[in-house]
């Protein structure tokens, strides 16, 4: 069981958009991809970066992953997304655009 | 904060522009300004400026526009590769040219009208990056430079919501102004301070556009981000300073959430405490002030706000502080109880913020009692 909640706020427009994905409800191929991206990012062990306080109009993200009984939320600013997490974040952003 | 104006009473350059009717090129205005702000030639500065301009025997000191536009080539590394540098002829890429021209237009407003030499007032190079990331519906200031995405230009036309972010001149002015604010009041980017920070960027972003178009306050559209939406979106822009909350109402994007009055102030944890939402209140106060004063908004209303931004506002200033301090700045520039100061009061009053409780009062420090007005009267330029 895995659930991903992804929220983007801020930006020039200040509009908040979010995704709430229960992987059991996704086509299995998509669910497998997301599961892999979460695992590869080592999400539950990533160090949270200090917020970027100098950037203006940047997007802020909050990413919550629930895997079995473990849940974690990471707050990310546009320019401090850990490299290992980028593929997952980019996948989620693409989903939000559709 | 910088305190450039050690001389208490100096003529703003737009007044010099009015006095010296010798054309409007930025170079001339700057020359006049250089003379006008020199303490050594205060007495007869206008005559000197006129003479200097006639003979061409002036030099523009230090104020040189220096722009570089980079191309991120759809990646996220900054700044990217150089696409056009200062003095280069236009390239084939419209985003590059828009960033170049837009940062130039913004520089010009600040230099000609507010005597400011670039973002840091020390001639800082204006760096912009275009084609940032793929499908990037945004523009930002990263603390050192401006960055613009291509919107939805990677999608089929029928699915696009956003055009590239350089299409809108006020967006460029907005981003560059975040740099100016960073070097001046450095308003904290959350809650009311952050919304004030955003409003300052919208105000001067809009003024850049109005200045370039030569529009008076009543001719201007007061739209922020006009042209950013594709025809698939029901909306005319991202924000409206004239009527906050009315810029768009779209099935996909939702409705413009901006309030125009304190009674509708939105308390939220999103968007750094609603910095792009509650800025509508301050934006509208500025709009009302500019309409009340009439004429070109960058002149008087802009001058008051520029003074507040560079000399009065602090990083923790809230809306009420901004009201009090713009009221104070207006009193110092145009006189206590002047039309301009009353227009500031009316602007804030329209959005539910009371400043200057008693007529002509309300400022927290003694003011210069309108030395500019007095000088204008002496010159027969004002009654």
Describe the protein in words.
The complex is a heterodimer of chains A (98) and B (383). By secondary structure, chain A is α+β, with helices and mostly antiparallel strands. Chain A has a single domain (2-97), classed as Subtilisin Inhibitor. Chain A is built from 2 helices and 4 strands, in the order ββαββα. In chain A, strands 2-1-3-4 form a 4-stranded antiparallel β-sheet, covered by helices on one side. In chain A, strand 1 and strand 2 form a beta hairpin. Chain B is built from 12 helices and 9 strands. Chain B has helices at 13-19, 26-36, 45-55, 94-114, 169-183, 191-213, 271-274, 279-293, 300-312, 319-334, 339-350, 371-378, and strands spanning 67-71, 81-85, 126-130, 139-141, 146-148, 223-224, 239-240, 249-250, 254-255. Residues 1-21, 34-61 and 359-369 of chain B have low confidence and may be disordered. With 383 residues, chain B is of the alpha/beta class. In chain B, strand 4 and strand 5 form a beta hairpin. In chain B, the strands form 3 sheets. A 5-stranded mixed β-sheet of chain B has the order 2-1-3-5-4, with helices on one face. In chain B, helix 5 (169-183) crosses helix 6.
């Amino acid at each position: 069981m895995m659930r991903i909640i992804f929220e983007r706020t801020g930006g020039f427009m200040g509009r908040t958009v979010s995704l709430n994905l229960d992987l059991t409800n996704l086509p299995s191929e998509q669910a497998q991809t997301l599961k892999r991206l979460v695992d590869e990012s080592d999400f539950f062990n990533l160090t949270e970066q200090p917020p970027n306080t100098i950037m203006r109009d940047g997007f802020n993200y909050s990413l919550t992953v629930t895997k079995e009984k473990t849940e974690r939320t990471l707050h990310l600013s546009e320019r401090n997304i850990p490299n290992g997490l980028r593929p997952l974040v980019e996948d989620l952003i693409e989903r939000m655009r559709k | 904060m910088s305190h450039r104006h050690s001389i208490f009473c100096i003529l703003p350059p737009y007044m010099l522009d009015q006095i010296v009717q010798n054309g409007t090129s930025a170079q001339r205005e700057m020359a006049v300004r250089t003379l006008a702000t020199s303490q050594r030639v205060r007495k007869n500065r206008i005559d000197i400026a006129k003479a200097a301009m006639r003979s061409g025997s002036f030099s523009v000191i230090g104020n040189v526009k220096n722009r570089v536009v980079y191309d991120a080539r759809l990646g996220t590394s900054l700044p990217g590769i150089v696409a056009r540098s200062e003095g280069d002829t236009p390239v084939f890429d419209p985003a590059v040219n828009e960033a170049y021209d837009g940062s130039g237009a913004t520089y010009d407003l600040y230099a000609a009208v507010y005597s400011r030499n670039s973002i840091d007032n020390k001639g800082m190079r204006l760096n912009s990056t275009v084609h940032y990331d793929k499908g990037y519906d945004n523009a930002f200031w990263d603390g050192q430079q401006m960055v613009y995405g291509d919107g939805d230009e990677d999608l089929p036309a029928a699915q696009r919501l956003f055009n590239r972010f350089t299409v809108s001149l006020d967006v460029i002015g907005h981003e560059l102004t975040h740099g100016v604010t960073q070097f001046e009041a450095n308003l904290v980017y959350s809650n009311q301070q952050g919304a004030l920070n955003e409003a300052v960027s919208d105000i001067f972003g809009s003024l850049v556009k109005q200045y370039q178009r030569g529009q008076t306050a009543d001719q201007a559209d007061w739209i922020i981000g006009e042209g950013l939406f594709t025809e698939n979106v029901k909306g005319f822009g991202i924000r409206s300073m004239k009527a906050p909350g009315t810029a768009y109402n779209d099935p996909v994007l939702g409705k413009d959430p901006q309030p125009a009055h304190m009674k509708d102030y939105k308390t939220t944890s999103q968007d750094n405490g609603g910095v792009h939402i509650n800025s509508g209140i301050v934006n509208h106060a500025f709009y009302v002030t500019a309409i009340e004063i009439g004429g070109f908004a960058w002149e008087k209303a802009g001058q008051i706000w520029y003074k507040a931004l560079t000399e009065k506002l602090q990083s923790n200033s809230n809306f009420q502080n901004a009201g009090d301090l713009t009221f104070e700045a207006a009193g110092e520039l145009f006189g206590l109880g002047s039309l301009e100061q009353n227009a500031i009061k009316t602007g804030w009053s329209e959005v539910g913020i009371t400043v200057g409780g008693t007529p002509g009062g309300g400022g927290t420090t003694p003011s210069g009692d309108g030395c500019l007005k007095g000088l204008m009267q002496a010159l027969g330029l004002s009654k």
